[in-house]
Amino acid sequence: MSNAIFYHAGCPVCVSAESQILEIIDRRKVDLEVVHFGEGQANRIREAEAYGVKSVPALVIDGQVLHINFGASMDDVKNG
Amino acid sequence: MSNAIFYHAGCPVCVSAESQILEIIDRRKVDLEVVHFGEGQANRIREAEAYGVKSVPALVIDGQVLHINFGASMDDVKNG
Question: What chain B residue is nearest to A15 in terms of C-alpha separation?
Fold first, then answer.
């Protein structure tokens, strides 16, 4: 079982892209958690940065970061 | 059934990221094709650009582009 965390900040441009990638993930193989920084999970930003997340949306699979598109930089997330 | 095309150029840095994302895709929901520009499929570059692919690896799901990480620009693929 892989462990995946999907970090995002609700960037309007990326919402459809996000829903698409979540839809194609095989839940039988992947234990998936979705973290929305804008919805009371801002305390997870430091954790995301520790994984190497530079922009959102990002999918961390077993500790490895996949940056998807370019929605908002981590600086934007902090300042927004 | 979604239709997905994974475009890449064998960028060494991205190989493990690529294999990970391919592994987590639910093949029951997604009809997946892998296109490697470096292995006789350079003729697919124009098609990828028409979808809006700006860098590889990229995953096009039902015509929508998800750029994953930043491996090599399309210019690098053409010139390499």
Answer: B66
Distance of CA A59 to the CA centre of its chain: 5
Q: Which residues on adjacent β-strands are paired with residue B32?
A: B4
Tokens of B17: 């990221």
Q: How far apart are CA B40 and CA B31, in angstroms?
A: 22
Q: How far apart are CA B24 and CA B42, in angstroms?
A: 26
- In the DSSP assignment, the letter for residue B25 is B
Say which of B20, B30, B59 has its CB closest to residue A61. Answer: B20
pTM over 0.90: no
Alpha-carbon distance of B26 to B30, in angstroms, equals 6
Over residues A9-26, the pLDDT tens digits come to 887 656 766 788 888 999
Q: Could you report how far apart the first and last alpha carbons of chain B are, in Å?
A: 35
Q: What ipTM was reported for this prediction?
A: 0.71
Chain A: nearest CA to B9, how far in angstroms?
Answer: 17
